[in-house]
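re the bet — no i am not wrong, look at it urself. input seq straight from the record:
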Amino acid sequence: MPHYQYLGRNADGSKASGSVDAPSEEMAVEALLSQGVIPTSIVAKKSANSTNIDWKAWLTPAVPLEILVIFCRQMYSLTKAGVPLLRSMRGLTQNCTNKQLQQALEEVTSELTNGRGLSAAMQMHSHVFSPLFVSMISVGENTGRLDQALLQLANYYEQEVETRKRIKTAMRYPTFVISFITIAMFILNIKVIPQFATMFSRFGVDLPLPTRILIHMSNFFVNYWLAIIGGIVGVIIAFRAW
């Protein structure tokens, strides 16, 4: 959780300073106000463990957009029908099939029970609800048109799902071609070129520069093929995460 250093004033006007832990700067302000402190300056500080990578969060897959579309559509229908927000959230939490979204909705429902707004509660789960999602919900709450905000979010995510499907379809053929080329390069460098290199070494003559480059590349593939495969897998995982 982020760590904030603050300066402020107490109710009697005296100076106050210290630190507070909160999911966001806005919630840090709320926590200070509840303690009777009026903050005049809040600065985020990095904790000692901030440089450690949260591998669990990094490797956790994002909630599929199709699930978010269904959630927005259901929330829109319930809100449009006049069902109370807290009752709607509880019902959707029970019927949610995605474990990650279900856990987030359970915590959001708990925050709603404690009196926190919907957008503020969702902001605490940035791995599920994007800044765009939270901003749209906040606008809907402030304008009294939460149902329209949910409808616009559903339409937006539906268009994004369609766009991603088109991109995947367009990339299918180039992916197959690159995959087969990569496999062919591995076979050539590991099986074919070493046979020619052995034959050329018996001649005892200076080979042309392109031939020497190919032989050195083949030797690299033969000696470090595990590292190459590991690098390719790492790049693929990093790209999918990005």
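see?? Strands lie at 3-9, 15-21, 38-45. told u. also The chain has ten helices and three strands. so pay up
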